[in-house]
């Protein structure tokens, strides 16, 4: 999958994060959800540093939601280690913003590279709305981009399925299952299908969020292999509605 690019010379924010014991899996390595949690936290810290706080957005009835994400995982991070993360806005479309976040070890070895497409949402209308000039001016300097799209067709009828119940621990302040959790479900469905991509480096994964899962719902994660890729679909158990389309594979670069 094409790795989205990023220009230089735009405002960015960096911070360090220590991977806690509970943020690692049974192999002792940082989970995918931990990585995306860092990406999400640093995005909000960057926005707040520029005066765009949650209160600022609330007063205007605006909300950022993640539309899609492309992740390159370059090296494992054991629990207890510290990573340095840096984030920036590197693209705008009418209702979308592309955020690029990179992670390194303290010694400077690359750990991960994440492109996240955020959609500006009107709370009153319940859907996308144009990004205001004021928001663009605070970040400045970015160009345009092609949104991350993931459409790998329908899962086969004999594919392996993994079911999970959305718990309160999975929810974000909006009341949706946090976007970071979906990456763990992709890894779990691929593992159930016979591949241990979660411990393969380098590798890539992409997720396109279609609808939100909520507390108490049962979701079904499916994965199937096509050539060198693993394709993924997350569905709501009650009606079969698609929640997430995904794909993953090894990264030779």
Describe this structure in words.
The chain is of the alpha+beta class and 253 residues long. It folds into two domains: 12-139, Hotdog Thioesterase (Thiol Ester Dehydrase, Chain A, Roll), CATH 3.10.129.10; 160-250, Hotdog Thioesterase (Thiol Ester Dehydrase, Chain A), CATH 3.10.129. The chain is 17% helix and 37% strand. Strands 1, 2, 3, 4, 5, 6, 7, 8, 9, 10 and 11 form an eleven-stranded antiparallel beta sheet that branches. A hairpin with a 5-residue loop joins β10 and β11 (242-250). The termini are close together.
Which H/E pattern describes the elements? EHHEEEEEHEHEEEE
Shape designation: globular
CATH class of the largest domain: Alpha Beta
Q: What structural class do the secondary elements suggest? A: alpha+beta
Q: Just name the CATH architecture of the largest domain.
A: Roll
Strand content: 35-45%
Kindly summarize this structure in a few lines:
This protein has about 250 residues and is α+β, with helices and mostly antiparallel strands. The protein has 2 domains: about 10-140, Hotdog Thioesterase (Thiol Ester Dehydrase, Chain A); about 160-250, Thiol Ester Dehydrase, Chain A (Roll). About 15% of the residues lie in helices and about 35% in strands.
Helix and strand layout, with pairings?
Blueprint lengths: L11 E7 L13 H18 L4 H6 L2 E12 L8 E11 L3 E9 L5 E13 L4 E2 L4 H7 L20 E6 L15 H12 L10 E7 L8 E9 L2 E8 L5 E9 L3
Antiparallel strand pairs: 1-3, 2-5, 2-8, 3-4, 4-5, 5-6, 7-9, 8-11, 9-10, 10-11
């Amino acid at each position: 999958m094409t790795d989205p690019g990023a220009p230089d010379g735009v405002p960015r924010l960096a911070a360090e994060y220590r991977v806690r014991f509970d943020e690692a899996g049974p192999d002792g390595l940082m989970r995918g959800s931990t990585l995306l949690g860092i990406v999400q936290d640093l995005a909000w810290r960057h926005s707040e540093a520029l005066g765009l706080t949650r209160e600022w957005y609330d007063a205007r009835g605006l909300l950022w939601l993640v539309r899609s994400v492309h992740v390159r995982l370059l090296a494992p991070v054991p629990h207890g280690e510290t990573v340095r993360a840096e984030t920036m806005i590197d693209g705008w479309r009418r209702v979308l913003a592309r955020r690029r976040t990179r992670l390194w070890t303290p010694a400077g070895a690359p750990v991960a590279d994440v492109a996240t497409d955020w959609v500006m949402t009107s709370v009153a209308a319940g859907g996308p709305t144009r990004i205001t000039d004021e928001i663009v001016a605070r970040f400045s300097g970015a160009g345009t981009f092609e949104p991350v799209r993931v459409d790998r067709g329908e899962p086969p009828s004999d594919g392996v399925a993994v079911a999970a119940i959305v718990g309160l621990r999975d929810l974000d302040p909006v009341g949706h299952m946090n976007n970071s959790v979906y990456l763990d479900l992709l890894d779990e469905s691929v593992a159930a299908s016979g591949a241990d991509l979660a411990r393969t480096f380098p590798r890539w994964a992409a997720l396109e969020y279609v609808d939100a899962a909520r507390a108490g719902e049962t979701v079904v994660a499916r994965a199937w292999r096509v050539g060198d890729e693993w394709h993924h679909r997350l569905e709501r158990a009650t009606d079969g509605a698609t929640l997430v389309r995904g794909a993953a594979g090894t990264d030779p670069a």
